């Protein structure tokens, strides 16, 4: 199976086939509204504004699995994002990204690009310490570690890069530009 064989549920409960994104560069992000990384919505919106017409699509999948940082209904989450960050990209129904109830799409994404580290800096060190406290073997586990983990998919449907929330949004931007 490839990425275009998967579907996700929209906020309105309709299914969205990722086949609709064939030929596009796709950034898939598990998001949260009450997280220290929530301001990344601003950067995501800028990416969308700058590169949507060149073929970028952003797939926002809110997730409440990490410290309950995405409370509220799907409509409340959407209202927060559009009012607070003026987001225009597709936002799906809240979903799980790890465990028995994880979206099948996330199983595929993690299989394609496992965890490679948080990078450097204070936030990266803090995330590493938090994950280590929960699971000393976290580095060997491909699971999503926190909100705002991003998967970059090229125009042919290949998952080419995984960005942890601690990675620079400037690096994400450069990787997106390289694929466009």
Automatic annotation (TrEMBL):
Keywords: Oxidoreductase, Peroxidase. It comes from the Bacteria. GO terms for biological process: cellular response to oxidative stress. The active site is at 35. GO terms for molecular function: peroxidase activity. Pfam families: GSHPx. InterPro entries: Glutathione_peroxidase, GPX_AS, Thioredoxin-like_sf. PROSITE patterns: GLUTATHIONE_PEROXID_1 (PS00460), GLUTATHIONE_PEROXID_3 (PS51355). Gene3D superfamilies: Glutaredoxin. The keyword Oxidoreductase applies. Belongs to the glutathione peroxidase family. This is Glutathione peroxidase. It comes from Oribacterium sinus F0268.
């Amino acid at each position: 199976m490839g990425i275009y064989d998967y579907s996700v549920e929209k906020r309105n409960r309709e299914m969205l086939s990722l086949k609709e994104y064939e030929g596009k560069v796709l950034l898939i992000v598990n998001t949260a509204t009450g997280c220290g990384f929530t301001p990344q919505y601003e950067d995501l919106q800028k990416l969308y504004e700058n590169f949507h017409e060149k073929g970028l699509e952003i797939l926002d999948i809110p997730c409440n699995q990490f410290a309950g940082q995405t409370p509220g209904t799907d409509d409340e989450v959407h209202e927060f994002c559009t009012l607070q960050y003026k987001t225009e990209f597709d936002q799906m129904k809240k979903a799980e990204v790890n465990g028995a109830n994880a979206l099948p799409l996330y199983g595929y994404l993690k299989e394609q690009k496992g965890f490679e580290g948080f990078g450097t800096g204070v936030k990266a060190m803090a995330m590493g310490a938090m994950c280590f406290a929960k699971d000393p073997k976290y580095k060997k586990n491909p699971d999503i570690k926190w909100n705002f983990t991003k998967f970059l998919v090229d125009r042919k449907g290949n998952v080419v890069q995984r960005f942890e929330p601690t990675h620079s949004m400037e690096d994400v931007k450069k990787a997106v530009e390289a694929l466009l």
